[in-house]
Structures are given as structure tokens and as C-alpha cells.
Amino acid sequence: MRVDGVEVVVAELELRRPVRSAGLVHSDKTTVFLRVVTDRGSGWGECAASADARDPDPTLDEVEPLLVDRVLRRFLARGGSGTLPAPSTLARDLLEGASAGERAVVAALEMAVFDVVLRAEGFSLAAALGAVRREVESGALVGIPDERETGPLLEAAEAAVGAGARRLRVKIEPGWDHRPLGALRAALPEAVLLADANGAFAPAAAPGLRSLDDYGLACLEQPFGPHDLAAHRALGDAMDTPIGLDESLWSTARVHEALAAEACRVACLKPGRLGGIAATLEAAEACARAGVACFVGGFFESGLGRAVNAAVAGTAPFVLPGDLGDPDGYLSANPFSYLPVEAGMVALSDAPGLGAEVRPEVLRSETRQTRWLPRAG
Fold first, then answer.
1. How would residue 80 be classed by pLDDT, with cut points 50, 70 and 90?
2. Which of 109, 165, 168, 338 has its CA 20 to 30 A from that of 322?
3. What is the count of structural domains for the chain?
4. Are 83 and 158 contained in the same domain?
């Protein structure tokens, strides 16, 4: 299969409603999409970098256009023959020594290569990855409400549970931890609750965090900063609640480091952060060997990125509900279709490709900029 070039599309997307987490409000979802064009068709990929990213994730400005073009030119110059590399080797070669921003671009490029190859060969991504489930569980996210009021919090949580969410990922921060979790546990005694702090607490807050055991949480995610594995290990040793890591897991090497430090019992793995599908599966297999439970996290992706995440979640190491809800529910405009979702279960696609189809009219209406990088020679 011969590569002709790559089209870069920057689409100005936004969330239907702002979502507040510790110290940050998510609303702008301007996204870079890549279309790899070959003599046998084309495939799409989605970059996870966003305008309002937090450490260690790259912002859109850090990635576009400098890192996007740098990675794509390396890809297009490979070997000089123009032959499309196998998805399994593409990311491995391009990820060596990659920065956080380059990992995000490589993940998008790998996605696009998977898409074009699978479409040409007639396989679905779920089948190619050896998914062991035909449906995967989806959880819901509950942000920090304006004015920290429990009324809107409970309304959002009850609506999510009513729609079939298999777990609630509840955003917390200093001063907004015991009260929301206590209110949710009282109102929804059987709900699976995961408290996500996004690294907002200092290690000195550990005594207060230990009492979160009272709420029967499935996980306390990322209470401390991403670089402090020792503090997470110490808190985990002092709590019954499993400690989860998210932002701390920025590469496969870092996942191995966190596992060696015994810093978590739950891992939120994000393909868009780790460098793509192959890197995420490698990280998940390492977690499974260490007895650490995994779920697939999200970046408010379009239907394209989220369909990939769902297929990854169908593989054996992922045993917890992921962030796999329908993007039509949170994006004001979604340029790619998504998978069927019913009662909190996402049905994986058996159609050739990634499981998402472009919505040309939507993508065209939201596109801010496009450019074409041809294969040299």
C-alpha cells in the first residue's frame, strides 16, 4: 500500500456544557484530525491535545502545527519507498524519545494507519485487537457544579445512573470532597463511585483523604500531583480504598515505573496520552501482570477517538467501566459517528475500520484550517 500524503484538519469543536474539574473548566475541544491517504483508500485519526490540557498533557498550541508536521514528515520520509508501515511497528518506531506532544500526534497517526489498513483488509479494530467482549461497560463523568451546590450534583448523577452508567467518576478538589461524596452515597447507595481529584491535593492532606474510606469508593484517582509516586504509595498503604493513577501514567515507561513503585491498584490508561493503541495494550498487559485493574480514560473525544477507546476496552486487561459515553451527548458538533449505546453498554463494531464514519457536513462546517503534506519523492 503506497502512501500519497496526509491531510491535517483542525476543527473548532466545543462542549455542550462546560465541565469543571479541580482547578480547570473544560469547554474548548478544538481538535486536530489526520487523514492518511493511500492508493487503496484513506483512514482517519484524532489527536488528544486540547486547548485546556493540564500537566502532563500537551495543549493544542504546543502541538499544532510544529509537532504535527514534525511527526508527519518523519512518517512520510520513512524508507523513501512510500510503503505504508504496519500499524504494529509504526508507533514503536516513532515513539522512541518522543515528547508528550509527539506521543499525542503519534497516537493520531497510528489510528489513521489502522483505519486505512483495516478497511482495505476487511477487519474491524475489535477483531484485530482480539477483543474478548462484544460490548463494553461505560461510566459517566460528574463535574464540580457551579457554587459547589449538591442539588445540581445529585441531578446530574441521578440522570447518568438512570441512563445506564455503570459507574460515576466524580470530580473532587480541596473543600469539595466529603460533602459531595456523602450526598451521592446517601442518594445512590448502590452506585459505583470513583472520586477523581486530578492531582489537586497536597500530600499533607492525606489524613483527611483517608477518611474517604467511609464512602465505599471503587477508587480514589490521582489525589496528588503526577510526579509524586511515593505519596500515592503511602496513601494507598493507609487506605482501604484503591488508589488510581491517571495523569501520572504518561508513557509506557512511566507505567512500568509506577507499577514497580506499587503506587496504584487502579490504572486509567488513555491511548491519546500514551502514544496510541499498541502502547496502551502494552501498558495494560503490564498492569494485569501486576494485579492492577485498568480502565480506558477519555479526553472528550469525537466519535472517532472514542470508538477506538471502546475497542481497546474490549481487550482482556480492561476489567473496569471506561469513559466511553456517546460523544453526541457532550459535543455541540460531533464530526464522526459513534457506536450504539444502550443501558450503559457500548456495542463494538464488526465493520471494517475503527468503527466510526466521518460526517462530512459536520466536519466541513466546523473546520477552521486544512493543509496537505505530500509524500516526498
1. low
2. 109
3. 2
4. no
How many angstroms separate the Cα of 191 from the Cα of each of 133, 164, 229, 246, 267? 23, 11, 29, 22, 20
pLDDT at 232: 98
Q: Do 297 and 225 share a structural domain?
A: yes
What gap in Å lies between CA 98 and CA 100, rounded to an integer?
Answer: 7
CB 138 within 8 A of CB 325: yes
Burial call 5-42: b when 16+ CB within 10 Å, e when fewer = bbbbbbbebbeeeebbbbeeebebbbbbbbbbbbeeeb
Taking only the tens place, the pLDDT of each residue in 124-157 is 999 999 999 999 999 999 999 999 999 999 999 9
Check the CA dihedral 350-355-358-359 and report its sign. positive
**How much is the average pLDDT of 76-90?**
81
Residues labelled as active-site residues: 171, 270
- Whether the model clears a pTM of 0.85, i.e. scores above it, the answer is yes
Coil/strand/helix, residue 164: coil
H-type alpha helices, 139-228: 150-162, 178-187, 206-210
Encoded amino acid at 256, one letter: H
